[in-house]
Write a structure and sequence with these properties.
This protein is α/β, with parallel strands linked by helices. The chain has helices at 2-21, 23-37, 87-103, 117-127, 174-185; strands spanning 58-61, 66-68, 77-81, 108-112, 133-136, 151-155, 161-166. It has five helices and seven strands; from the N terminus they run ααβββαβαβββα. It has a seven-stranded mixed β-sheet, with no helix packed on it. Strand 1 (58-61) and strand 2 (66-68) form a beta hairpin. GO terms for molecular function: antioxidant activity; isomerase activity; oxidoreductase activity.
């Protein structure tokens, strides 16, 4: 008993490490930690915002229908690059679903994944997500190219990149909703 009292923190640390080494427990732990540390995304300062000039991008939805990104020109657009195997991506999905429920008819949402439809559909179904998911069919516009997942861009009606967030965030935050409302009012 004396051994446990003296070494409880070391035992706890070793237990956590072991849980992180086991694939079945690692992913839920990573998702939970990402949710705990996810804050509202930061807005790019007005003078540092770049303009997205290239809207030529072909996408396909999970029903196999072709979509052209240029259909979203002059609208407020949110583009999220994600994957089902990515814990930070999974962590932010509930906040995206809540945001989409309220803004889906006002903002163009593109949840883009390079994974196969056979992997995406069961994931979305299991989690109960009703998000517009697309697969890229052509090169991503250069200003939205990233090697990180998740990466999310918020684009104004004038094509300015207002948010460029790499990593998980709380997209259902009141600060972000206020930003969306301001962009929609422009």
């Amino acid at each position: 008993m004396n051994f446990l009292k003296k070494n409880w923190s070391n035992i706890l640390f070793i237990l956590v490490i072991l849980l992180l080494l086991i694939p079945q427990t690692r992913k839920p732990i990573q998702v939970t930690l990402n949710r705990l540390i996810a804050f509202s995304p930061s807005e790019i300062a007005e003078e540092k915002r770049e303009v997205l000039e290239d809207y030529s991008w072909r996408l396909q939805d999970l029903d196999g229908e072709m979509h052209y990104f240029n259909e979203a020109e002059e609208e407020v657009v949110l583009v999220n690059f994600w994957a089902t195997w990515c814990p930070p991506c999974i962590a932010e999905m509930p906040s995206f679903q809540k945001l989409y429920n309220d803004y889906g008819d006002k903002v163009r949402f593109y949840f883009v994944s390079s994974e196969e439809k056979e992997r995406l559909l069961p994931f979305l179904e299991k989690k109960g997500y009703e998000l517009p998911v697309y697969q890229p069919l052509s090169a991503i516009p250069k200003k939205m190219h990233s090697n990180s997942l998740p990466t999310t861009y918020l684009i104004s009606k004038t094509g300015k990149l207002v948010v460029d967030k790499k990593g998980a965030a709380n997209w259902n935050d009141s600060k972000f909703r206020k930003l969306l409302d301001e962009l929609l009012a422009e």
